[in-house]
Amino acid sequence: MAEQNDAVMEFLLTRRSPPAKTLSLPAPSRTELVPILTAGLRVPDHGKLEPWRLIVLERAGLDRLADLTQERARSLGYDDEKTEKGRGQFTRSPLCVAVVETRRSIEKVHALEQTYSAGAVCLSLVNAALASGWGASWITGWPAHDAELAASALGLGPDERVAGFIHIGTPSAAPPERPRPDLGVSVTWAG
After folding, report:
1. What is the DSSP letter of 42?
2. Which helix (H) or strand (E) holds 124?
3. Number of helical (H) and strand (E) elements in the chain, helices listed first
4. Is residue 51 classed exposed, middle or buried when 0-12, 13-18 and 19+ CB atoms within 10 A define those classes?
5. pLDDT at 74 exceeding the cut of 90
6. Model pLDDT for residues 55-70, shown as the tens digit of each residue
7. Structural domains of the chain in order of their starting residue, each with its CATH number
8. Which of 27, 130, 155, 177 sits between 20 and 30 A of 137, alpha carbons compared?
9. Are 64 and 153 in contact (CB under 8 A)?
10. Handedness of CA 119, 166, 22, 73 (dihedral sign)
C-alpha cells in the first residue's frame, strides 16, 4: 500500500466550490494558472488520446463570449432571464477555462470514455484551483450545450463540445454547505 496522504484526504472530504457568481478579482495570473492547468490535465485518459483541449478566457475573451451569447440567445428567442443567465456567467467571471471535449475516432476507445476523461479534466481543474487557494466553480448551462454558439464563439469543430466552463477567482463569500450523498442510499456493497 502506498503511503497515506492525510492532507489530501482532508481536502477532498471538505472541499466546496463557491458559486461562480461569488467569484471576483483578483484571478490567477498566467504564471499562477500554469500549475493549475498542468494538474488539471493529469486525469484518466484511456489510450492516451488527450480527448480535450483548454481555452483560457481572460477579460477580453469573456466580454466577447458574453456578447456572442447574448446575440445567440436573442436569435433563439430566449427571454431576458435565460439570456442574462447565460451571458452573466461570462460578464461576472474574473477568469474562465473552457474545457473542450475533442472526440477522437479510435475504435478501441469508446466515445463515452473520452467524454468521461473530459469531465475528469473539469473536476481536476476545480480541485487544483481550490487547492491553490482560489475559488473555482464548474458551470455549463445552455451556452455550453449550444453547438452553433460554441463554433462561432470558441472555434469548436464538429467533433468538439464544451464539457464545462471552469470559473476561477477570489471568492467573496464562503461556499454554502449543502447536503451530501448518503452512503447508505448511494452505495451497494457486492461481496
Report:
1. -
2. helix 111-131
3. 8, 5
4. buried
5. yes
6. 999 999 999 999 999 9
7. 19-173 (3.40.109.10)
8. 155
9. yes
10. negative
